[in-house]
Hints:
Chain A is α/β, with parallel strands linked by helices. In chain A, 44% of the residues lie in helices and 16% in strands.
Amino acid sequence: MFLPELSLIEAAHQRIAPYLHRTPVLTSQSIDAVSGAEIFFKCENFQKIGAFKARGATNAILQLPEGTKAVATHSSGNHAQAVAYAAKSKGMQAYIVMPETAPKVKVKAVKGYGAEVIFCAPNQQAREDTLNKVVAKTGAAFVHPYDNKEVICGQASAAKELIEDTSTLDFVLAPVGGGGLLAGTALATHYLSKNTKVIAGEPEGADDAYRSLKAGEIIPSVNPNTIADGLLTSLGKLNFPIIQKLVQEIITVDDEAIKAAMRLIWERMKIIIEPSCAVPLAVVLQHQEKFAGKKIGIILTGGNVDLEKLPF
Amino acid sequence: MFLPELSLIEAAHQRIAPYLHRTPVLTSQSIDAVSGAEIFFKCENFQKIGAFKARGATNAILQLPEGTKAVATHSSGNHAQAVAYAAKSKGMQAYIVMPETAPKVKVKAVKGYGAEVIFCAPNQQAREDTLNKVVAKTGAAFVHPYDNKEVICGQASAAKELIEDTSTLDFVLAPVGGGGLLAGTALATHYLSKNTKVIAGEPEGADDAYRSLKAGEIIPSVNPNTIADGLLTSLGKLNFPIIQKLVQEIITVDDEAIKAAMRLIWERMKIIIEPSCAVPLAVVLQHQEKFAGKKIGIILTGGNVDLEKLPF
Lengths: 312, 312
């Protein structure tokens, strides 16, 4: 089992800091009043490339062997931009496999960093097959979106900063897709804030992590269907045991609850977040008895929405 | 001519501070790259009630005679919320005359502060007639949205903070509707940053301030038509001479340029701003030769958009 020491997380944080923002932690009296809790939002929507994924990808790419000329990955969007951004800052070529259904704004941004985009069908198998072909053809180093040690350690830096910038939290909540952010969040919280419980939010229409935790083994995501387009992937092999060991609970919410939480953040905080990162607030709003009066850290994962396809 | 001393602006700032946020000044490398300038955005979209108008209304209401029980105003939206908010925090009843066309989110917010809303036709005459009836009936104190000394001194505090939180700016840009913010901005800049030029942005479809400055007298706004729904009103009598004396130039932009600037801020900065406050950035983007390499402060006036009626 991969269970990195705190020193690995600290080293990752130090390594990536020059390339990234230390994002602000924001609060909203109005959302506190609605939720009955005291919420601290770690605003990774203000991160480079508009999402926390810049952390993991940058940490992974900075540790590739000297002389690596190209990197490749598959991603529905934010990891794609993250790899493209990190590759560009190291002067490498990036090849990005994206589903045809990826939001336009994300495709445009990836190309804006000078990466080459290769489209595929919107399912896990097509992504992996296409990626394998690209790697075989170009010799690029594959940077997995979440099932990767350096990526997990990089993502952990978001929760590390959140904990450093707040007083003791009762809960830290993050969404779960492949489990890179969740594993990193659980690790940082375990080492730096022992009494804080980590809970994940997951869309009902993509609840493979919830079912995996119940079953005690990874149950792949099959035909997921949710507005939270960043959370469609299955749990990673490295990620699952960390989540099993350090995450207290996974709570699911439906798309209506996700949309309502997203809208609440847009209207009350005047910040743009994507549907995937409204999931934890939706969890808090649907379980007020559990969270009433508690201090809660929520990682707002990203803000890359397609403005032509808003759910309002 | 009303030309308040610096001490009046300083007193207003001190008076309102306990009720309001000192909003952040944000920058965007990506928008700097697009514009060729170095821009400092004063984020009044994060202000109480989601707009700078909270400053002026709070300053005016805090100076009403002891024993005042009710206040009234007319406003297309943000001043309405501002008066409702300030009245509530002083335990007063607020009566707000709003055009039938006001964004739903603004009407809802005004009612949320416990104010009574009275609707009228969407023109200046109907607003004033309805307001007069309300004042006659209730005895409420009228707080004008912009043609009011305390309001002007309150709005000046936004530029005061912007200047305090940045190093010397070449330009400060603000939008102009009734001229409360612009007069306040010009006053604060005049006293606190002598070499900084103040320029206003105005929608082509509501260019009464541009024409008034050319003509040397107030030319009322007749049938204005622009997406910038906060800038429909005519210049105030107190505001005009201050603007004449201290504002270097008014530059107009069309609605397409306003929409493009709004979208750029949403996509690159991940913050929600309303169309009216995209006007100054639209000015900068359309006059790159004038602003290239300059340090520019822009007051982002508010973030209260109707999410069901977005221009994207």
